[in-house]
Design brief:
Keywords: Amino-acid transport, Signal, Transport. It contains 16 helices and 16 strands. It has 403 residues and is of the alpha/beta class. Helix 3 runs parallel beside helix 13, helix 4 runs parallel beside helix 5 and helix 6 packs parallel to helix 7. The protein is globular.
Length: 403
Amino acid sequence: MRQSFCKAMLVAALGGMLVGTAHAQDRVRIGVLNDQSGVFSTYQGIGSVIAAQMAVEDFGGKAAGKAVDVITADHQNKTDIGVGIARRWYDTESIDAIFDLPNSAIALAVANMSEQKNKVFVGSGAGTALLTGEKCTPNTVHWTYDTYAYGRGLGKAVVAQGGKKWFFLTADYAFGHDLEKQAMEGVKASGGEVLGAVRHPLGTADYASFLLQAQASGADIVGVANAGDDTITSIKQAAEFGLTQKQKLVGLILGMNGIPALGLKAAQGAQIMNPFYWDLNDGTRAFAKRFAERHPQKNYPNDMQAGVYASVLHYLKAVDKVSGATDGKAVVAAMKAMPTDDPLFGKGTIRADGRKIHRLFLLEVKKPDESTSKWDLLKVVATIPGDQAFRSESEGNCPLVKR
């Protein structure tokens, strides 16, 4: 079923290419660029495309009086492919804005390109806090999360819950290093202690030696600073080792979609930080039901897919406000000028540095006997106000912020 859906997406993208520049001026065109075939495809992938389509439909299908197209492509987690797609979209296919974009290297390159070509880039799957720091641009909005909020915010929240002594299991590349650094600083700032860390290569299959070091550390908390399949494999093996009997796991980027693969027995008690969970209120539950009905695997939406939906809605409001999508800088300025309000993230704002501000939730994976259905996975432990969750503008060194 997924294969047929992907074919449909390809047909939609190819069909969009045939619109032609003569007719493109009569349309607003947005592209969803992400991993649709690799290790992060479950976390963004087709789900983010569905979320964008739902947002366009819920907005009425038009913005500034023009029909809105959604096209998509798979960047395969390769920088040259992702940058090449973005350039083609901007130069020859009249794409006005690019959304989602997990993979920080690609996201930073596309953010720079979007500024050069006066287009719009809105990151939902992208994690690097540089997008609203030293690499911020007047054409970028960073919507769902970043390494600062998930790393430092989770560190502070867990220490406040009593998890004082930490040890880190970290992916040995830039994203993992940044995540570890932010969490360490959050732990220390809150009065916690970091007892050590161990780093593993990307795509590690056997975590035995790393987990033995974590067990021997005497830490209360093992911070898992990796992502995607690495997170699933390391947490699953930690449970098999019996590590979770005496130590609590904190998945700094443990997505909800990975928990069914882990199983609640292995994942129970693990804590994560998220701005969205499908079972928060009537609005999130209604969206999740509609989303699952359209998803090839009937998956429920995660935070990054919800972020695509919410950010596309707000983008279309801004396009309406400025009466067009061709001036990317003007559209982003309008996005910042308007307060945000949608059924998934609630009320919020977008700061001068492009950082979208909203509350975050400290969530804990339920025990097997607490869950009543496949996607009944998490419970809220604490709520963190947005102004406490995200890095302050003064710390980010964004050149757009007046000093």
